[in-house]
Amino acid sequence: MLKGVGSALSETEMQLLLIFAGSDRERQRLAQYLAAHRVDGVLLVSVHADDPLPDLLAQLEIPAVISGRRSAEETLPSVDSDNFGGGRVAVEHLIDQGRRNVVHLAGRLDVYGAQRRVDGYREALRDAGRPVDESLIVAGDFTEEGGRRAMTELLARCPALDAVFAGSDVMAAGARQVLREAGRRIPDDVALVGYDDSAIARHMDPPLTSVRQPIEEMGRAMIDLLLDEIADRRPAVSRGLERRQLVLPSELVRRASS
């Protein structure tokens, strides 16, 4: 994403300031920095549903664009990939491979994108005439350890599982470890699909089928939207928000894990 952002900014006179705000103290310092109006605009990445920062930016009338959305009712301009379509195509692929018991290692369910991937999982099963067993959806936290925990739980719940859709490549890596420790071969016994098409997917053994997000394109689109916001500082909700909620297509990259 930074590559796309940097490429788009290179065509302007603006500079990029990268700030990480993980702790409460870091967020407080960031709020003070923003309150001093030392920035022209803000790009928000990895924002959770209860994050107060977007509302603070709105109060300060600082132009902002979000990567992803906090909910279906997002009020700020946003750029996202098609998480629903990505989840659906991943599960459709597994069903097309003849897999009968498809489980889902979901990401953090306070993240709207993770919720939409779960929705895509459910929709693919319904379209195939399969029942949706909610016990076969276990939330992780987008970490390798979270993938291990969720996979261990799913193996206990459904020993006959033969396909896993993980909400991220990192969680898929954790799931792979658990499957191998349980003596399950990939893809012979269990097909495995991840999400993000990261370097992890390409270098995993076997290489991981994964859903690719157009990350670089998303970065460029975020800058384009933000520049529009800076040029017209009226609240986005007064300017036809429908056209400012961009959703870019995702695609399945097939490899040897499925």
UniProtKB/TrEMBL annotation:
Record carries keyword Transcription regulation: yes
Keyword Transcription recorded: yes
Transcriptional regulator LacI/GalR-like sensor domain location: 91-258
InterPro entries according to UniProt: LacI/GalR-like_sensor, Peripla_BP_I
Entry keyword set: DNA-binding, Transcription, Transcription regulation
Domain of life: Bacteria
GO MF terms, alphabetically ordered: DNA-binding transcription factor activity; transcription cis-regulatory region binding
Family annotation (Gene3D superfamilies): 3.40.50.2300
Protein name: Transcriptional regulator LacI/GalR-like sensor domain-containing protein
Upper lineage: Bacteria, Bacillati, Actinomycetota, Actinomycetes, Kitasatosporales
